[in-house]
Amino acid sequence: MAAAAVLAVAGSTLAQGTCRADLDGDGELTVFDFLEFQNLFAAGDLAADFDGDGELTIFDFLEFQNEFVAGCPSEPISLQMAGVPLAEYPHFEATRAFNQGDTVFLAIDPDRFPAIRGVTGDIYIVESRTNLEWASDPSLTDVRGMPQAHTFSALSIDGAEVALTGSETLAAANGLNISTGYDLVVDVDRDGALGDGDYVDGLAVHPADANGFSVFTNISEMGPLTPTMIDSSSSQGVLRLNYPAELASVGPLPIVVIVHGGGHDYRWYDYLQDQLSSWGWVSISVQNDFSGTGNRPLRHTDALIGEQATIAGGVLNGLIDSSRIVWIGHSLGGRECNIGSERLSDGFTPSNYSAEDMVLVSSIAANSIGGGGFEADPGDINYHMIWGSADGDISGSPSSFGGQTIPFRNYDRADGFKHSTYVHGADHNVFNCCGFRNFQGPASTEIGRTEAQQIAKATWTALIKHYGEGNTDAIDYVTRAWDGFKPLGVMDGTTLVHMYRPSTIDGGSRVIDDFQSNPSISQSSSGGSVTVSVSNAAEIRQADTNGSLTWTGSEPSNGMNYAFLSSDDSAGLVFDFNSPSFVEFQVIPSLGDVSGFDHLSFRTCQGTRHPNTIAQLEPVTFNVVLVDGSGTRSTIHVGAYEAGASEPYQRTGAGSGVGWQNEYGTIRIRLSDFLSQGSGLDLTDITAIRFEFAQDDGSTIGRLGLDEIEFTLER
């Protein structure tokens, strides 16, 4: 009966030797393969050991039947193979970026791809190719000189990783590219060409997957071009211009406009301008007027483009690319950039460029209050903010200066792709050359100007190369857990918290709950039910309302600095736990097919000065569970990725106690990780997302905030 069911689906012509079920090697799946399996099994031949356990049992028959029904591949098998081993389930993390000198690992989960068991193939690292290039030339040439032979004998993804010989010496920077992209191929039939049944990482399903992986240079250091600094002016006033000495031969180049803060000087950002110039960007740093209108970045950008024939004697004429523009503003300069972005997003169009030409707006410890009808809302232009936890000016205290010192609300207002880089131990002026020290925090945590600027240079280099030049893999530097992956040139002991959310206006995410509607804790914003067994759960507006960070027990939103004005609608869930408990979000049927998405993404933070936070002052970890319509569950502990809810910076002030504002960090888990070890999870029919606390290896106690639970696409 089973054989008849199998034979009914057989019959397609296949490349010989590309899958195990073709046991007679004729390129077709027929009854003769079934008979061959029976003969091998009866003879005790381990060629029939399809489950790879070294014994011949009924499970080998079932595995053979499954592969027979599935059919042999008629084209290369595209999957993510490059990554790093993990100490616990899912045992391997597929990643896109590696620092130069790192070992790159390859893994294929034999439970998901059982045909790999027992195969001896050749592993190739090849120069990255587009799909069209692969189609026109499938030949394989390993950049290491020769491929790496390997027998895939692992029975599980746990232990299936293969260290790629020589990956530590792979080329990184390539001219103005901060990385070199590679594709990975497991040549199963060992014929030296990518063909049917071979495994490939880098055969792009979408543009973000253009490379199997990339190796990056030290992006905190300068690039190959020679910065040239000139003090000049335009119709809008004085400016400091920085461009590569090689501009005439490498231009046109994109442009960055830098706007300083109150009490600062436009000549205080040479380190940043040199960095940008060395990697192929022209920059100007301009004098601010602090008008609260966004005019400084708006008008100086317009003048730079319109007056390029005369600025600095016309050295830029015809050599700047006005279709790729970045703004960076510090403090009140960040406010000007945010308001300028708000105006562009609302339809204001200067003479020489438009909102479509803006690739990124970035603010450094921005004063976050609006004025004159503006809210300092970055709108739908890609946005980034960087900020120090020990800032004595833009402090984050909920009581200071009418809310202007809490820039996290700028992040929450933005609608485009957005990032936050929150740096422990950095003060307000470490991001320029010459501002006075206003450090507020434990002395042992101070990182100083050199380290802060290493982080800043690496962060902006990754961002402008990603958004301005299409280096898709550079996004790893601003999205992956900092403890698990950081750029070269920064100190291991520095703490940094990332937030990231893809644009909510282009279909890049499927929101399950962002708490912006249905304010009951029993219903998600997508309309599904929410079940909780944690303690003191409350859905809150994310604004600390009493001006103090002291935990009183009567303000669930204590420490939240993500909303301030009545128009700020940031909301989330808060709760605590000290025993096994959970929060479960129903995924309604119309949203349950998530097979076309890449990640489960959410952000989480610890509640500052809460007794549970103080009791275990370390990152809080927990389990994340996906459940499908048949009840199958797959569970991942976020600690596997060195991720978790970071402990609040241990700063005093703003009331009694120790600890500072609540620091949301975004955790992203690849959906394919939930399929490891043959979990059987059906990504086309997900019915629930469950967060489990005080279970297994998770933290035993905590006070958490939870927000932005969604499935996202890689971009």
From TrEMBL:
Identify the SUPFAM superfamilies for this entry. Answer: alpha/beta-Hydrolases
Q: Which residues form the signal peptide?
A: 1-15
Q: Does the keyword Signal apply?
A: yes
* Keyword vocabulary terms for this entry: Signal
Where in this chain does the entry annotate a coiled-coil region? none
Q: Which InterPro entries match?
A: AB_hydrolase_fold, Dockerin_dom_GC-type, EF_Hand_1_Ca_BS
Gene3D superfamilies from the UniProt entry: alpha/beta hydrolase (3.40.50.1820), Galactose-binding lectin (2.60.120.430)
Tagged with keyword Signal: yes
Superkingdom is Eukaryota
Q: What is this protein called?
A: Uncharacterized protein
Q: State the organism's lineage.
A: Eukaryota, Sar, Alveolata, Dinophyceae, Suessiales
